[in-house]
Structure formats: C-alpha cells, structure tokens
Target: Crossover junction endodeoxyribonuclease RuvC
Amino acid sequence: MVKTPSSLSLTKRLSLLYDGLKEKAGEYPPDIIAVEKLFFGRNITTAEMVWQARGVILLFSAQLGLEPYEIKPSEVKMAVCGYGAAEKGQVQGMVANLLGLEKNPTPDDAADALAVAIAGLSMSSFDRNILKGY
Model:
C-alpha cells in the first residue's frame, strides 16, 4: 500500500504515489494490474482526487506494458463474495477469509484494494483459461 500524507499538495502526493508504485513494482513485478472503475459519488472533491490518482495508476500500467483490468464495484463484490450487492463488512470478512488473515484488513481502503486485487486475479485466471481453450 502506498500512503501519502494528506498535508502535502496534490501534485506532491501524486508524485509520491508514482514513486511508490515504481518501488513496489521493482520489488514485486506485477503480471496484472486491476483498478476499480469509478462512479460519481457525493463528495466531488474526494472523487476528483481519486480520479487523478487513478490516472497515475493507468499511466504506470501503460509504462509497464500492462492493460489494467477495470472492475466495477459490483463486480468486485461478486468476485469476492458471490453477491454483487454485498455490504462492506461482508467484503472485508471474505477478503480476510480468502487471504487467511486473522482479522479484517484495515484501513477500509486496504481492504478495498485487496478485494480489487482478488477480483483482478479471478478475471486474469479466467482470461488465461479462455486463451488456453479450457
């Protein structure tokens, strides 16, 4: 997880996000990248920051030559819980269960990111099996 101090300017935070992604990819080169598709929320200021961070992630994906899996929140819930309208607590519990964690991941953003990763892996496995003819 890449965390940036909220006290910094947006441009500095986006730069730190990019640097953090590069560092993590150097340690653990990704085979796939999954990002959650955005929907319009009520808090436009927060949504705007998320869109900009998402742009950094999409740029980073392109630089790695990876086409990211863009997954709707309902698809993430379906992949993790088997139910596209699952509640946040259900998703967190299933993430913990699937990953063998003793308790639900925190903060909520970390649990959400892990759920998106699980959904991306699920989609990736499905795509590979289709290509192999299974």
